[in-house]
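A quick aside before the break. I want you to see a complete sequence-to-structure record at least once, exactly as it would be stored in a machine-readable document. Don't worry about memorizing anything.
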Amino acid sequence: MHQLLTLGSTLATASGHPCTIETFLGGGGQGEVYRVLVEGRPFALKWYFPQQATPAQRQALAILVDKGPPSAGFLWPLELIEAPAPAPGTAGFGYLMPLREARHKGLVDLMKRRVDPSFRVLSLAGLQLAQAFLRLHAQGLCYRDISFGNVFFDPATGEIAVCDNDNVAIDGQGTGGILGTPRFIAPEIVRGEAAPSTQTDLFSLAVLLFYLFHVHHPLEGSREAAIKCFDLPAMNRLYGTEPCFIFDPADAGNRPLPGLHDNALAHWPIYPQFLRDLFTQAFTAGLHDPAERVRESIWSSALARLADSIFYCGQCGAENFYDAEAAAGPPGPCWSCRRLLTLPYRLRLGSPGGRPAGRQVVMLNHDTQLFPHHLDPGRRYDFSQPLAAVQQHPSDPGRWGLKNLSGAKWVMTGTDGQLRDVEPGRSAALTAGVQLNLGQVEGEIAV
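That is the input. The structure line, written in tokens, reads:
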């Protein structure tokens, strides 16, 4: 039950606008969160407990408000709100932030199977998380507490929302004793050898991504199962002094156990080798040497590639992944129904004048779209407006094409060697061997 602010009462924002306390949303270790109205618009207000409303916290908030959000994915502090004096029962301060939308669900919902997003949505959510923390770190900031409770996503689209940003600090200058959330804290912090930093954020991000794709912790295998009393010394060994990746290729001493760790055992073989290699780096070399941790930009490109590698089982419709590293022979069976898979057409992308093969592969499913980063390697990941889309021929259901949704002309080289223009609004036929000049990149359709 709320105890700090009175519902229906009104405070003033730093800019002088009235802020009406409407609904209590929840509380935590630092304070309480309310739904409020400011000039008729809904926001969230976090109000600190008296012991947390310190001058240092207020100064940190003022810095964050002044800096502004690194990207739209952060529910960033917008304005300070202080109680007028005297104001019995409302002494202290808080801050205004965007209200989290109901469509955004917590990763706890994913862990408990209350939501069931597609692999494509998980790939896009992971990509957006990596991009969000890349932009935060690029501003010289450290999040300090990447974990379940602070990250939300839309199970339909993958759009993210990062909350509790009042714990963000300038890298190397964090105060207030925020070390992170157990199970997400980097080993060197668990051992008492380091304070939170961008490097420890990278470890927490890798744990978060492993949870996202495997619904399991990367260090919890047979060693965790053997612990009889999960007390502080046991946790310090498992996550700090003796951590071991459950799929460490050089150390099988902490493998996941059937019946106890089935999520990890089921999900790990589904993903292509390039993603498994990144998780292996993050939790072997990166487990012991912060300099070896996977950077946000590497996660971003890998997760964009993961989304591009999805194709559907023709029998059950399950999403499978095209693994270029293991694609010498025919594809294996579907992970879901165990029926043999048939590959769709795929587009190999490369730089003009070079060989497209081996650069980037996009599976051309019935719902595939290409975006700016596909057609211009220098562009950021932006999924708001597709520049191309696979479409069925309007009068011949057996024919498919790649429709030009951009504003620029493409040039297609057919299997007969003839050049043809593909104007905006027109389509290039999905035929093996067709080559496309897409401006900044060249592509070749394969099967």
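Two observations worth writing down. The chain has a mean pLDDT of 91. Residues 344-446 form a domain with the Tumour Suppressor Smad4 fold (CATH 2.60.200). We'll return to this after the break.
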